[in-house]
Amino acid sequence: MLYSLRGTLIHRELNLAVVECGGVGYQCFITLNTARQLPQVGSEAMLYTILNVREDAVELFGFADNSELSCFKLLTSVNGVGPKAGLAILSELSPERVVLAIANGDYKALTRAQGVGPKLAQRIVLELKDKVGLPSSTGVVVPDNSMPVSGVNASGNAAQAVDALTMLGFSAGEASAVVAKLDSDLSVQEMVRQALRALGRR
Q1: E strands of the chain, at which residues?
Q2: For a designed S-S bond to 69, which of 5, 63, 134, 172 qualifies (C-beta 3.0 to 4.6 A apart)?
Q3: What pTM was estimated for this model as a whole?
Q4: 4-63 has which fold?
Q5: What are the CA-CA distances from residue 48 to residues 8, 66, 133, 161 (Å)?
Q6: CATH number for the domain running over 67-133
Q7: Taking the domain 135-200, which CATH number applies?
Q8: What one-character-per-residue DSSP string does 125-148 give?
Q9: Phi-psi region of 61 (alpha: psi -120 to 50; beta: other; left: phi over 0)
Q10: Is-contact 136 158, C-beta < 8 A?
């Protein structure tokens, strides 16, 4: 299984990139978010990858970071959501925005993606909401196990940020440790963004 590619970026388009490793060019389908983060052609590039094997094709998908890859896997685990829809959603929304939309039942945010209609968006929210967290009567997302996260106020934005980070593949321990160091007045989205930057430097 291909986990990642690091090599020379020899071609790029809005929806694909070709990375040459050891004399072999690997074509990866990418999101618009990943495309914006790619270096110039001729520079070194690194993509996290997932291989999709079908009867009629073998396709490689590449992502700028692990959180986007984890979110792609999460989305495509839903019945009816193929790689094309997963890429479309992540081209419109960042991974943290996807997770927060699902947690808050905001299926309309997902319909911004090309080819994702209301029915499919509602199915995504329905099938994944329990994995992300359930909204309380105050509209705050709390973890499914209802246990407070150590060092974090479990009734505020920090709890939602930790939920989003764990949904993106980080452990609750490392997510809560990073979030606890952030300004508690930040929005959930900004907390997740800053936490991802901090976790990416480790």
Answers
A1: 4-12, 16-21, 24-29, 44-53, 58-63, 134-135, 141-142
A2: 63
A3: 0.69
A4: OB fold (Dihydrolipoamide Acetyltransferase, E2P) (2.40.50)
A5: 14, 6, 26, 23
A6: 1.10.150.20
A7: 1.10.8.10
A8: HHHHHHHH-EE-TTS-EE-TT-PP
A9: beta
A10: no
